[in-house]
């Protein structure tokens, strides 16, 4: 019985828990923490069971509010008008990332937010953010995607400005909110253009009716620009360092997954909605250029930073460039079946594998930075030193995270970066060399952070970090090492279905319109 | 007879809103610019559904059977609600910034730099 | 606290605004309106009383904790009614055309409007209306509180 309703339960249960949290907070604080962690753990189990369902049975279509996807008018004309949730390989891949990150964020928040006030609002917003991310990833309808995009924008910006005693948090939240809203308005304008031309909001119906007229080119440009604003790609990256630095550490981890959900939106629009009607070479090269700019500007701005979380936020921009590069190469050769089979599909698998790796190791790095800020109270690298003496666990986790992001074996960063290097080299050797240079600069900046924060004599007196924080970081490190030691199992089971689902847009359309 | 004039008016409104958003320095004026862009997009959505010589799409005591398209009106209503929540949030942050920095000039609020 | 004229007119108008707002919420499935619009009208009534009487008098009459409980009840009712239709699918309208609570059959075509139709929709309108009125009322009260605190420092 639960198996038929899985996607709706995955969105509905965090939303129901979010509205119940203020009432439960009035009873007891500890009960509310256990309630939130329990709800997120149950959602994780539901996502895993839906993953098994999708990998075995193919695309899962769920209709909200009716028995079938279409409506038969009395005259006999049948048209698809319902709001549907359509889960294929790529959607469930992103949902696995979101649920894992939200679960560990909630566990880490138990100790990290212990001394703050207004915690009931914090947990409510965290649950709404998670439900919004799931909605963005599961939906099969363009306007529904816009609504969930705005839900996550509002929840994320409230959490960025959560510490209202610092003036910098409000400044960061203001900047972030203006950029998020502007991006979402561009997306709404494009959805309006597409609706006005084809009288459909359903992604599958639009994909079957679309011809590539001049207004569709305008809509594609607006969609990619709006969604790239939320993902933190380079011309619109100004909000990323401020927002990631000022948010509390577990929220930064969930914000990384949020940015990747709008990256998923770009891929869904380019591959499934437009598909082969666009000149994939041009659009692919535009996405590759965005990726190269993000990689380069991200890492060079990161080398000169002095505050820990701001430095890591610039690295998040640069790693987003890797994902855009990998999938952009796949998009550029989409119409050429020979090149697609030899290296295009591999490049897409590398880019998509990098998404889950980045969520894991960037989350771990932000959690260690949060542990450093929690125990010492300082954010500037010039004032820190010698933390390895007292905080042994955090040092080990930081080493694991830094080695993973720099691409050292046997961690998972090496596996996905190697796939990207090899397949992009066959497309254009220059891009691969730039990617390798960026990786070397990444290693340089993390060596700088390690030396100045953790090595050396003890400068300041600190206390030990609490157990729940160590537990969350330990679980993420285990996942990093496991993905690094057995990358071929992960690529075969989880990543390859996602890449195949993006390339075969005909399957997506046929799941809704084929039966109608 | 009107042709494409309503659509041109919506785009002009959006461009005016973008100009205010980018070039003005007072925080409240930035919020007003954002609001203008929202108004332009909402107007665009409603204009999409227009059919000549039609009435509002409500069946209760309606005048005649020809009605404008109702779907864009539902989309616009959702967008207005979202715009309200967004504006309330941004204005709250503007109040907090004024409390901390004692100024509402966006070029002087530069503690996060680099 | 504004002058005597403003306060007297507010006393007369406040109940009319509340009734009008609830009317808009109730008839959402027949006439223009519905949950959000009616909730916004009621919240503007609360804002009117706040401006006429000043924040210090208001904070004993309209408490922020009561509004927070109303908001949670509205949200829970919305998702709860959506879950009740889980027999067929999520958000299924299980009361329409069924003969029970709001279950008269829907009339197709131009008609004078029957309040008893459209199943789950009036219930969800009430839930959304409660949530919007509590939410917007809280926003207005909290902004007044925040500005007053800022002036005191």
Architecture overview:
The complex is a heterotrimer of chains A (516), B (114) and C (153). By secondary structure, chain A is mainly α. Chain A has a domain at 279-290 and 298-485. In chain A, 76% of the residues lie in helices and 3% in strands. In chain A, the strands form 2 sheets. Chain A has a two-stranded antiparallel ribbon. Chain B has 114 residues and is mainly alpha-helical. Chain C has one domain. By secondary structure, chain C is mainly α. The interface between B and C is medium-sized, with 17 and 16 residues.
Biggest interface goes to: A-B, 37 and 31 residues
Which shape of chain B, going by the Cα principal axes? elongated
Largest sheet of chain C: none
Total count of domains of chain B: 1
In total, the number of strands of chain C is 0
Low-confidence stretches of chain C: none
H/E series of chain C, N to C? HHHHH
Mean pLDDT across all residues of chain B, rounded? 89
Give the C-alpha Rg of chain C: 19 Å
Straight-line distance between termini of chain B: 54 Å
| Tally of helical segments of chain C | 5
- Kindly state the percentage of residues in helix of chain B: 55-70%
CATH topology of chain B: Helix Hairpins
Q: Structural class of the secondary structure composition of chain C?
A: mainly alpha
Helix and strand arrangement:
The complex is a heterotrimer of chains A (516), B (114) and C (153).
Chain A: H1 6-25, H2 29-57, E1 60-63, E2 70-72, E3 78-80, E4 84-87, H3 89-112, H4 119-138, H5 142-160, H6 167-198, H7 203-209, H8 214-231, H9 239-246, H10 249-274, H11 280-302, H12 308-332, H13 337-376, H14 392-406, H15 412-427, H16 429-453, H17 467-485, H18 487-503, H19 505-514
Antiparallel strand pairs in A: 1-4, 2-3
Helix pairs in contact in A: 1-2, 1-4, 2-3, 3-4, 3-10, 3-13, 3-17, 3-18, 4-5, 4-10, 5-6, 5-10, 6-8, 6-9, 7-19, 8-10, 9-12, 10-12, 10-13, 11-12, 11-16, 12-13, 12-15, 12-16, 13-14, 13-15, 13-17, 13-18, 14-16, 14-17, 15-16, 15-17
Chain B: H1 5-23, H2 27-48, H3 71-101
Helix pairs in contact in B: 1-2, 2-3
Chain C: H1 4-26, H2 35-53, H3 55-61, H4 64-84, H5 121-152
């Amino acid at each position: 019985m639960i198996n038929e309703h899985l996607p709706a339960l995955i969105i509905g249960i965090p939303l129901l828990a979010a509205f119940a949290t203020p009432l439960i907070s009035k009873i007891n604080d500890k009960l509310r923490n256990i309630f939130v962690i329990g709800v997120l753990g149950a959602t994780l189990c539901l996502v895993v069971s839906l993953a098994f369902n999708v990998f075995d049975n193919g695309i899962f279509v769920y209709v909200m509010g009716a028995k079938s996807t279409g409506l038969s008018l009395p005259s006999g004309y049948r048209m698809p008008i319902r709001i549907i949730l359509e889960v294929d390989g790529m959607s469930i891949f992103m949902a696995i990332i979101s649920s894992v990150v939200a679960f560990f964020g909630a566990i880490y928040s138990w100790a990290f937010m212990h001394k703050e006030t207004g915690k009931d609002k914090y947990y409510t917003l965290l649950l709404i953010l998670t439900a919004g991310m799931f909605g963005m990833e599961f939906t099969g309808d363009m306007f529904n995607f816009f609504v969930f995009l705005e839900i996550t924008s509002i929840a994320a910006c409230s959490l960025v400005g959560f510490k209202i005693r610092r003036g910098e948090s409000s400044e960061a939240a203001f900047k972030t909110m203006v950029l998020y809203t502007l991006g979402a308005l561009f997306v709404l304008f494009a959805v309006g253009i597409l609706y006005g031309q084809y009288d459909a909001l359903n992604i599958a119906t639009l994909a079957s009716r679309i011809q590539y007229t001049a207004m569709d080119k305008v809509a594609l440009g607006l969609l990619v620009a709006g969604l790239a604003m939320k993902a933190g790609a380079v011309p619109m990256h100004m909000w990323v360092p401020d927002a990631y630095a000022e948010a509390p550490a577990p929220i930064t981890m969930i914000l990384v997954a949020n940015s990747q959900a709008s990256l998923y939106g770009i891929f869904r629009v380019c591959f499934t909605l437009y598909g082969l009607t666009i000149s994939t070479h041009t659009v692919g090269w535009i996405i590759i250029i965005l990726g190269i700019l993000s990689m380069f500007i991200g890492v060079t701005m990161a080398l000169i930073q002095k505050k820990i979380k701001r430095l890591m936020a610039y690295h998040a921009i640069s790693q987003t460039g890797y994902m855009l590069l990998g999938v952009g190469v796949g998009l550029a050769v989409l119409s050429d079946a020979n090149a697609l089979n030899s290296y295009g599909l591999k490049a897409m698998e590398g880019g998509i594998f990098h998404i889950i790796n980045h969520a894991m190791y960037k989350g771990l790095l932000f959690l260690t930075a949060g542990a450093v800020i929690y125990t010492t109270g300082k954010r500037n690298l010039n004032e820190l030193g010698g933390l390895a003496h007292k905080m042994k666990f955090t040092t080990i986790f930081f080493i694991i995270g830094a080695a993973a992001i720099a691409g050292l074996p046997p961690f998972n960063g090496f596996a996905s970066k190697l796939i990207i290097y090899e397949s992009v080299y066959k497309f254009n050797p220059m891009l691969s060399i730039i990617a390798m240079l960026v990786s070397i600069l990444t290693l340089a900046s993390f060596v700088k952070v390690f030396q100045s924060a953790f090595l050396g004599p003890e400068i300041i007196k600190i206390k030990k970090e609490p157990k729940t924080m160590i537990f969350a970081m330990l679980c993420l490190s285990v996942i990093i090492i496991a993905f690094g030691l057995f990358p071929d199992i992960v690529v075969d089971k989880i990543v390859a279905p996602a890449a195949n689902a993006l390339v075969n847009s005909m399957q997506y359309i046929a799941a809704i319109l084929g039966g109608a | 007879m009107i042709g494409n004039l309503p659509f041109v008016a919506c785009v002009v409104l959006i461009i005016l809103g973008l100009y205010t958003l980018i070039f003005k320095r007072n925080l409240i004026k930035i919020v007003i610019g954002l609001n203008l862009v929202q108004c332009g997009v909402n107007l665009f959505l409603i204009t999409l559904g227009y059919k000549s010589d039609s009435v509002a799409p409500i069946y209760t005591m309606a005048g005649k059977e020809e009605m404008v398209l109702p779907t864009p009106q539902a989309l616009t209503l959702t967008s207005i609600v979202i715009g309200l929540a967004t504006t309330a949030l941004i204005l709250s942050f503007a109040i907090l910034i004024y409390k901390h920095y004692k100024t509402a000039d966006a070029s002087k609020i530069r503690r996060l730099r680099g | 606290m504004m002058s005597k004229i403003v306060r007297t007119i507010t006393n007369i108008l406040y109940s009319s605004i509340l009734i009008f707002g609830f009317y808009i919420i109730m008839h959402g499935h027949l006439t223009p309106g519905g949950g959000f619009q009616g909730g916004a009208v009621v919240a503007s009534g609360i804002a009117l009383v706040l401006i006429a009487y000043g924040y210090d008098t208001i904070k004993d009459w309209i408490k922020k904790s009561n509004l927070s409980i109303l908001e949670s009840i509205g949200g829970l009712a919305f998702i709860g009614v959506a879950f009740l239709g889980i027999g067929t699918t999520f958000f299924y309208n299980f009361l329409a055309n069924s003969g029970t609570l709001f279950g008269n059959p829907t009339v197709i075509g131009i008609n004078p409007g029957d309040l008893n139709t459209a199943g789950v929709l009036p219930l969800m309108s009430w839930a959304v209306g409660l949530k919007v009125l509590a939410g917007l009322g809280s926003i207005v009260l909290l902004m007044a509180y925040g500005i007053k605190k800022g002036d005191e420092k």
